[in-house]
Amino acid sequence: MVVPCYNYGRFLPDCVDSVLGQSGVQVRVTVVDDASTDDSAQVARRIVDADPRVRLIRHETNAGHIATYNDGLAQVDSDYVVLLSADDLLAPGALARAGALLEAHPSVGLAYGRPRDFQGAPPGFRPRAVDWSLWQGSRWIELQFKRGNSALFSPEAVVRTSVQHAVGYYDPRQPHAGDVDMWLRIASVSDVGHVNGPDHAFRRVHGAAMSQNHFATMVGDVGQRVEAYRAHLGRLDPGPARDHLEAVMIDRAVEEALSWVIGRVRDGAPLAEVEPAVQFVHELDPRVERRGGWRAFRAIADGGSPWHLGAAWTWRHSADLRDRLRWRTWNRWGM
After folding, report:
1. Non-local CB neighbours of 172 within 8 Å, separated by 6+ positions
2. CA angle, 109 as apex, 55 and 150 as ends, to 5°?
3. Where do the H-state alpha helices sit in 58-136?
4. pLDDT attached to residue 214
């Protein structure tokens, strides 16, 4: 277990306790403190002194989150590894459930469950019946391209350590979508499994969270994911399979961007506000004018006829329905 920490001393004890309290498994925790300016190092040392299963790596100078992740991952010699941010928590029994899947299926290099967001006090654990979803790596990759948004984050991911060391660590060129890049690399060399049913991890949502403070714009968010997908495409041989994935990536990113643009314009935002997103869509697909989403945007932006405006709302409604379906299938089966 690797726990990167920067100025999260107030969260660290609960995070580590959620690991040390896991039943049915043996755990070791490496806390990597990235030169925190709060009391994180002192808190971590108290935890280390109280439990021999915990150790501390302390950076003398701030190295950033990617280097912090990688320093911890490079040290791991257990069978499986989890990267758990110091402000997040594991759900009770999560490691045993994921470990059972990995033990039963040696070809699986990545097992994950359902994360649950929370604010304030951690939510109560909801026990549910457990079953598994299993995919060949190549099939999981195609589904991830179709989904667009990452099917998993980090706290709910349990990785076979031999696979983690084989594919390498987080790419500093992917500061925001490095998780997407990592899961694609793992799925390139192994199969993927999902533990259906119970909550697997609890993701804390708060103002200091990195995801709340970096790449907050639509273009930044979707653009970084596109770069992660392009990195994967760059590792493939040219041919129909690669061309298919690229087309899927463009379709999904354009749909997401246009849906956001239409929503903002519908809510009264000036066109200048959405112009960066419009440019982004044109860069992704220079022939975007052929798409129904583009025609819907222009109908709203130009104050088109009632018929055209009706067609625009129909397109946006269809996009919303597709998003809800994606959420439902992800919530049940992990993809």
Report:
1. 64, 66, 67
2. 90
3. 65-74, 94-104
4. 46
Give the pairing type, strands 29-33 and 2-5.
parallel
Residue 6: which residues within 8 A CB-CB, separation 6 or more?
33, 34, 35, 36, 40, 62, 65, 68, 86
What mean pLDDT do residues 104-122 have?
Answer: 94
Q: What is the dihedral of CA 277, 279, 281, 285, to 10 degrees?
A: -170
CA 194 to chain centre: 14
Mean pLDDT of 191-201: 96
Alpha carbon of 276 to those of 18, 170, 233, 258: distances in Å? 42, 28, 25, 12
Q: Which residues pair with 81 in a beta bridge?
A: 159
Indicate the pLDDT class of residue 304, thresholds 50, 70 and 90: low
CA distance linking residue 149 with residue 335, whole number of Å = 10
User: What pairs with residue 3 in β-bridges?
Assistant: 31
Q: How far out from the chain centre does Cα 235 lie? A: 21
Q: How far apart are the C-alpha atoms of 109 and 240, rounded to whole Å? A: 26
Angle of helix 137-147 relative to helix 240-266, nearest 10 degrees?
30
**Helix/strand/coil percentages in the chain, nearest 5:** 50, 15, 30
Work out the average pLDDT over 135-152: 96
Domain positions in the chain are 2-213, 236-333
In the chain, what is the straight-line distance between the N-terminal and C-terminal CA atoms, in Å?
A: 25
- The fold of 2-213 is Spore Coat Polysaccharide Biosynthesis Protein SpsA; Chain A (3.90.550)
